[in-house]
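Q: What does the assembly look like in three dimensions?
Context provided by user:
Components: two
Sequences:
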Amino acid sequence: MKDDEQSVRSAALERARASALAELERVPRVPSWQRDATVAVLLLLGWTVMVMGAGTWLSIVELDRLKGRWLSLVLLTVVQALGILAAVAPGKPMLRKVVALLSVTAAIAILAGRGSGLATTTPALACSTSHLAVDLVPLGLVLIALRRFSGTLGRSLLAGVAAAATGAIAGELSCGRGWSHVLVHHVGTGLALALGCVLLARLRQPETFAP
Amino acid sequence: MTRFCNGDEKAFSALYDRHAPQLEVFLRRFVRDRALAEDLLQTTFLSFVRARGRYVATAGVRAWLYAIAANAGRDALRRRGARREDPFDADSLYLASNTRAADDSSLWSSPSFSMSDPNLARAVGEALQQLPADQREAVLLHKLQGLSFPEVATALGTSVGAAKVRAHRGYQRLRVLLAAWESA
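A: Here is the predicted structure of the complete assembly.
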């Protein structure tokens, strides 16, 4: 009985060894997490630049607003870059806390920078819709980055916030409405997207279970 | 580990021989299902190979492997959604007594306790299943697998203090549960 059990165990151990060795032979080199994070950050920032360029060309983005809203824009760019880094980097709980704090600070800066706003004929929902549309590519990017390891709620949320920051940057440069609109249609939409990222990340099977 | 990270098969085999048998026992304890544990062992080492670019030396190979195994086990149990419905596998706890000596906790050093007693092994296993998941994982890793608290913390993705608190609460609860079993 014990011999049978031992042979079953040995067979299982050998199977696991053989499959791992086959994988090692198939992929003798793997990228470091630093490389993965750098690529993700560059793609995210590159996409933001592309969106701003397209928005300027279509006269949706008004670069004049850079002057008055530079603080929130700097904070959002930092949140984008550090958010994806904090989500992907193994360990680094302090970095995740710092980025979470920066995200809240950026949201406050966005709200504080707006007064009662300008009158406009554009429907308010246009901001939410365009925010989501602009964030779809970053959302896909961060979800791919999150697949490489076993994500946690905090990491997925930060990755979602990093993705949502793209739409927030576009919103800062294109929307002149007041703080109550921004709270619902920009900050609210960004938060919804970040929560959506958590949900999607939880639903998918990760490629590896590494922490 | 550095040689393994560069794709050296011999280095991988050495790591596998050192850690795989203990991980297999851990997974059987964790999911209480032999077939699933065997699948998870395979998944754990596939993850180990695929994600070696994420390894940071400060974590330690053993703790990192247990972190992968625990993540895979948690995911499998979540997907199956039947954490508490499986029959208890007393064999895996019997194996525990053969793979690691009981040591520092008063719970395990009680003169009445012997892991070679299948009834007691079953009672310990059932008591473990009644612990909240975080406490159960900390007790399994620290007491049955013999990981140090810094290693348990790495495996569970928490601070060392939090790992100690989880294990301590788990031991307290186990004492109560096993005292009730003993008096019955």
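Follow-up: The interface with chain A takes residues 5-7, 9, 12-13, 16, 20-21, 24, 34, 38, 41-56, 58-59, 64, 67-69, 71-72, 75, 91, 154, 157, 159 of chain B (CB under 8 Å).
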